[in-house]
Amino acid sequence: MKKYLLTLALPSFFSLAWLEPARADAVAMLKNTLSSTVTLQGRFTQTVTQQSGKPQQSQGQFAIQRPGKFRWSYQAPYEQVIVGDGSSVWLYDPDLRQATVKAFGNALESSPAALLAGDNALEDNYTFKTLPAKGGLSWLEAQPKREDSGFASIKLGIRADQVQEMELLDRFGQVTRIRFDELRRNAKLDAALFRFTPPKGVDVVRE
Q1: How far apart (Å, rounded) are the C-alpha atoms in residues 99 and 103?
Q2: Which of 12, 56, 96, 193 is the most buried (most CB within 10 A)?
Q3: Which domain of life is it from (predicted)?
């Protein structure tokens, strides 16, 4: 199960039948949401559902400083940390005493983290469409343009100019749902949040 947690940061609309105005509205909504956000922090609850098996839930905290910096910290049921410093992305597993580092572009292109922490060049990596409102949220769907993306589609629920929920479908039919709570936008964040130094004795794997 732990390996699925890590895929989130590494770690969103399609169909030619949709009219261009609707597509433009979807992109504009997300761009407006992101352009008004310099920093964002809060808590998240993540539920991963595979095609067979019991759903697995995890919780933690996150912080984002746009463009390109983020920290995603799982606290339960396993401790894991994912840090993007703008040039590299670190994935640290304290239990395994292992840290994996990837180039920032390779780790984030066509990924959920690129949506939240990246710039506003959304149409370079995604095609968009508007979905019906549900649960008091305005919903969008994003489909990565790259065929080697780990995700088939990403849905975002927006309210009050903030992304409140995300739903990710990967290429194997696994669904990851994320709910954000206690959101604080545009507060000053400690720069140390977005730096990672492997602890002594930790194996470092470079990809």
Answers
A1: 14
A2: 12
A3: Bacteria
